[in-house]
Amino acid sequence: MAKKTPLHYIEILRKLKTSGLEHSPQVNRPVGNIDDMPSLEERIRFILGITNKTIKQAGNMLFFVMYDIESNKVRYNVVKYLERMGCHRIQKSIFLADLSIEKYESIKNDLAEVQSLYENHDSIIVCPVSSDLLRSMKVIGQNINLDIITHSKNTLFF
User: Fold this and answer.
1) Best-predicted range by mean pLDDT among 29-38, 117-126, 149-158?
2) Which contiguous run of DSSP H or E holds residue 132?
3) Is residue 119 classed as helix, strand or coil in its secondary structure?
4) Which contacts of 85-90 are long-range, i.e. CB under 8 A and separated by 24 or more positions?
5) What is the 3-state secondary structure (H, E, C) of 81-108?
6) Which residues contact residue 111 at a Cβ distance below 8 angstroms, ignoring those fewer than 6 apart?
C-alpha cells in the first residue's frame, strides 16, 4: 500500500474552511502546547546564538512572525507550520527565524493566504530584523540578567 503524500499547509486550511471553521467546537487537544517551551534564559541564548554567529549563511535573513489569531484550529495549524518551516518559538505568539529569503517569501505568502481564507479579525505580522537590532533587545518583566548570558559584563579599574 502506497503512502499518502502529505497535504501542503494551505490545502489543509482550505479543507478546514470548507468544513465550516467559524462554527466548529473547541479542539480537544492542547493548542500550541507551551508547557515544553524552553525557559526564557534558553530562548534568549538561542536568540543571541543567532546574532553572535561569526559566519552567516549567505542568502539568509532574520525575521519575526507574530500573530493574534482567535481560532484555536487556525492558531494550532499556524504554530505547526512555522515549526516545520524552521521557525523557533520565543514567546507564545512570536517566532524567530534565520532562514533563506525563499523560505521567508514562502512563509509570508502562505500566511497571507491563511488570512484570506476565512472571516476573521486576526493579525499576522512578518517582520524582518537585522542582527544589530536584535542584539540591542531588552527583556522587560522577568528577573534575568542579560549581562551574564551575553558575557558582556564589564569591570572598570581605576
Assistant:
1) 117-126
2) helix 131-135
3) coil
4) 88/43, 88/46, 89/34, 89/37, 90/43, 90/46, 90/47
5) HHHHHCCEEEECCEEEEEEEHHHHHHHH
6) 65, 78, 124, 126
The residue-averaged pLDDT of 45-55 equals 71
Distance CA 158, CA 156 (A): 7
CB neighbours (10 Å) of residue 95? Answer: 22
Q: Is the pLDDT of residue 43 over 70?
A: yes
Contacts of residue 113, Cβ cutoff 8 Å, sequence gap at least 6 = 10, 13
Beta bridge partners, 129, equal: 62
* 84: its cell numbers: 516545520
